[in-house]
Amino acid sequence: MFEDIKAIFKNDPAARGLEPLLYPGLHAIAAHRYINHPLYKIKLKFLARLLSQILRFLTGIEIHPGARIGKGFFIDHGMGVVIGETAKIGKNCVMFHGVSLGGTGKHKGKRHPAIGNNVMLGTAATLLGPIKVGNNVKIGAETFIINHDVPNNCTVVGAPGKIVKLNGKTANMKLKKSKYFNK
């Protein structure tokens, strides 16, 4: 939890003093890390889900208890955030309001995105399906990505998402199809 509080101060210039303790994103992450996910792991799935839905009502942030989230995670203005059951989020990631890490309804097992380390997900970005997003990636506001993986060290924008920066250089590239969609 200390890493999550540090992430607030690092990523939100408005954070001062004890104010981060009031952030709904911090409440959602703390409940997920210390209550809901542990309950889910010991097979108390209904109770974990019930508590996550209560937290959704209180914070506007829906994190399925099965989701795996790395340290240093910061949700800014979290209203409308949805993180699906099989989603995985790496370390030191930032997510703005309205982001969805959802499924397509066409997969069983792994159904949600895997997000690498040091990833920024802009406002209302929608990532669907068992896709992989690399490390050190920026996903722009309102970007839509379905059935395509995102490589390391890039910036992706648009609907459908395309790479506009790769390894520090301007680019204009399409994303590659995810292996999960070639079946």
Q: Secondary-structure map with pairings?
A:
Layout: H1 2-11, H2 24-41, H3 45-59, E1 61-63, E2 68-69, E3 74-76, E4 81-83, E5 88-89, E6 94-96, E7 100-102, E8 114-115, E9 120-121, E10 126-128, E11 132-133, E12 138-139, E13 144-146, E14 148-149, E15 154-157, E16 162-166, E17 169-174, E18 176-177
Parallel strand pairs: 1-4, 2-5, 3-6, 4-7, 5-8, 6-9, 7-10, 8-11, 9-12, 10-13, 12-15
Antiparallel strand pairs: 14-18, 15-16, 16-17
Helix pairs in contact: 2-3
Structural overview:
Helix content is 23%, strand content 28%. The protein is of the alpha/beta class and 183 residues long. The strands form four sheets. The chain has a seven-stranded mixed β-sheet. It has a five-stranded parallel β-sheet with strand order 1-4-7-10-13. A hairpin with a 2-residue loop joins strand 16 (162-166) and strand 17 (169-174). It is globular. The mean pLDDT is 95.
Q: Assign the structural class, choosing from mainly alpha, mainly beta, alpha/beta, alpha+beta, or little secondary structure.
A: alpha/beta
Broad shape = globular
Helices and strands, in order, run as: HHHEEEEEEEEEEEEEEEEEE
| Number of helical segments with 4 or more residues | 3
- Hey, roughly how much beta strand do the residues contain? 25-35%
Beta-strand segment tally: 18
Mean pLDDT: 95
Record the strand order, biggest sheet. Answer: 3-6-9-12-15-16-17
Rg for CA atoms: 16 Å
Report low-confidence residues grouped into runs of 5 or more. Answer: none
Largest sheet: 7 strands, mixed
Approximate helicity band: 10-25%
How many angstroms separate the termini? 39 Å
